[in-house]
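Hi everyone, sorry if this is the wrong subforum. Our group has a chain we'd like a structural model of before ordering constructs, and none of us has done structure prediction before. Sequence below.
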Amino acid sequence: WGMVYAKRFRNAILRSLLTGIFGKRKRHPDAKLAPEDLLKLEDEFLMETLEVICMKYLTPIGRFLQMVWMIRFFRALEIVLLTGCKLERGLGLSFDCSGSCLMASDGPSMIRQLKDGEPLSAALSMSDVFPRMALEMVAVGEASGMVPALCRRYADGQESMLEQCSRDALTLMEPILVGLMGLIVGAIILLTLYPIVEVIRSL
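Answer:
Right subforum, don't worry. Here is the predicted structure as tokens:
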């Protein structure tokens, strides 16, 4: 119980800081829940807030996360559709596999849209996580009856883009790391030689 309340205290501080700086408070967990359930909801709330911040303010990180979410989601959706699972249930499983708290929180409303007769592309458009290209790909798949194949193709494309972005990031990081190592080594040399120089001057 002590650890639970310590984590709740930590979450309350982080939530206050994040909402005070960015004003991103979508919902507040129900205080009548058990401490363990309340802690889980607070963790999900914090993750949603951080994801919103990354998507809107830290664009490179948000774009990287978005590609990872899309790959996981469309891979899972392809598998559940090929196995003959109902679309509503398969969509919920795909949201859980994506690893995005934003997608998981928007999932129930999108599933309700599907049950009301809306097409899959229209239901997915309710979430800001899905890019326009993904929605258009799903719409084309619905029109042609090839949703699993187009899910696989879109996930393959996102994987290629993710690998290219990772290679570019590593290429940019190499000279930065070399420069930082040079600064650290230079600082160590200066700090080592400075006392020796002072001793020589005092002689």
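For your construct planning: Confidence is low (pLDDT under 50) at residues 21-31. The longest helix spans residues 147-202.
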